[in-house]
Queue: 2 jobs
Job 1
Amino acid sequence: MKDLSHKKILIVGAAGGIGSAIARRLANAGTFLILADHDTKRLKTIANELSRSKGRFMTNIIDLQNPKEIERLAESLKKNGPKIDWLIHVAGAIGKAESIAQQSPTSITTMWAVNFVSAIYLTKYMSALLRKNGGIVNISSTAGIWPNSRFAIYSASKAALNNFSQATAKDFASTGRSCICICPGPTNTAMRERIAHDAKKHQNPDVVAREIEKIVNGSSTLRNGDVVVIRDNKKKLVSRL
Ligand SMILES: NC(=O)c1ccc[n+]([C@@H]2O[C@H](COP(=O)([O-])OP(=O)(O)OC[C@H]3O[C@@H](n4cnc5c(N)ncnc54)[C@H](OP(=O)(O)O)[C@@H]3O)[C@@H](O)[C@H]2O)c1
């Protein structure tokens, strides 16, 4: 196993199913983690688990719907220690399975803000903190490629994230940093269980975490600008710049 103890990784959405799987895997690999989420209780639970297994981390409570909180996190990271290797943006909001007519304005705003607009502000405020040979991994969704009925806003926000990730990759090209977009298919987490009650049939979140570990340790086949699907435990490249 490669020594990753010098790597510093920011995971945004670290208290969720896929986020916590990534945190466990990267903590086991020895990286230093900055774990951010708005769910204080679940962030504490994952923090306690990592403490017991001697993981190295700090936690931050952040509401990604508020760009000022993203800016504040970037400022505090800048003061506390310089560079970050990878920012993994895994937070997401899906709302209910509803037609646009049924959807509440709050739910529409939340999905757009968490799934897409927060990626803009994270990129804006965090890019200067990212080391060369590191970068950003945005966790999108297969819904951003093949939209789902009754999930129009969720699908559109993820399609926007895919496009934004590739535009960012073009901006990063001359800097040595990368921006990679991973689109999971249905995955066994609380988010899937909330919308379809069939989570257990689907891939384990660790399948996404494994790919993130490869990106961090340099053994992934993915490169700057790639959009890749991870579905039914299989990885398939869908777009390469
Ligand atoms: N599970 C799937 O089937 C699936 C499939 C395709 C793509 N994805 C994507 O994969 C990513 C992770 O999903 P998951 O299944 O692990 O979902 P999850 O368990 O709900 O995790 C998402 C995390 O993001 C947090 N979050 C939501 N709004 C936030 C905000 N305003 N500020 C800070 N944190 C916020 C959530 O907290 P709360 O739970 O308290 O809101 C949760 O801890 C998401 O981007 C999702 O769209 C998931």
Job 2
Amino acid sequence: MSEQTEKHYDEQDAEKLLEDVEKNLEKKVVVAIVGKVSTGKSSLLNALFNKTKADKLAHVGAISGVTTKVTRFQLGKNVEIMDSPGLGDIIKENSDATRIAMGEIDVGILVVSDSADESQKAHYDELKAYCKKVFVVLNKIDIYDKKKSALDKVTNQWSEVLNLNEEDIIYQTCADGYDPDYDDDIELDIRGIDVLKRDILQFLKKYGKALVLEREMEKKSVLAKRIIYSSLVAVAGAAFIPGSAVYITGIQGAAIMSIHYVYTGEALSKKSAVAALPLFASQSIGSSLFLVAKSFLPPTGIIDVAAAGVAAGVTIAMLSTVNWVYENDYNLDDKKELKEQYQVFYGILKNMGLKEIWDIVKTRDRKKIMELLSQFVK
Ligand SMILES: Nc1nc2c(ncn2[C@@H]2O[C@H](COP(=O)(O)OP(=O)(O)O)[C@@H](O)[C@H]2O)c(=O)[nH]1
Ligand SMILES: [Mg+2]
């Protein structure tokens, strides 16, 4: 049968979206970073988590294992990192308290440097057994700055020694400069980290865990802006599908939960997120997704271009206000500030022209939308 059923949204789709986000923001992310002493594990962690020389991760919360060589970091409520020369110590330490089962660690990172050595194969295999995904990192690539061809040679040797498949990538990185012995004016030399970070987050998306880790890696307003951007892309994609009005309020509620999480590190219940939505509607209405949708969309429930402009404008004003609230040390209970700021943002958008706003949003062009958002989120 090749008959296509036309896509259609109902209130349950919106509820499902909210439920998924609610669940995702309660999830834990466990990272194990393994590699010989001095390959640059600590440095790599600092680079991955966007740390400066003055504000190193190790200074933030290193708790050394009592009986083993494991260093543990707890970031926020939901991210745990274990750093050790070998996974054996990590398993041993955890078997006392919280047992780590095979496949339970989300991300394993094997850090190697210099010429390939066979001893790391056992570590790699062990990581494979205990982690959902292993990333192999060849650090200190700056060693090869004056002999580029040697870098490819060394990478290939590591690939052979670890017996990697052809599609397995070895990430080439540099994370130099965190050493406290370096002079203060030596700048960090960071390379290859963005690609590694991107692929780790891409992988965690499959488990709905990307934002939990990303929260610990990025500036909060940068993340909030990305969340608003993604919501707008979702609104643009949903706009002309039947039933989208309620679904769009679901998108908005889900984004409020995510922004709240970014700033507070706490999950907001979907109930609280939905309860916040009417604050942004002009007239007083009941707190259901359906009623909120009705408040800013045509009574027919069918979206035309004018209504799509309103939906996009409301979404930008609403989510930028939520960001503004947290940036200014208010919270969602500060209803007066919230309503006032929403009116300011929505006013600006209306002056720009909601049709014009829609013309930008509908392209789903990242650069254009981000430029627009920069007026509302620093
Ligand atoms: N040249 C160079 N040195 C690095 C790099 N990453 C780390 N280092 C240095 O290697 C030494 C060991 O780094 P560290 O992060 O403590 O390694 P760990 O023992 O694996 O945690 C320190 O002196 C770092 O400054 C890199 O990419 N290039
Ligand atoms: Mg270290």
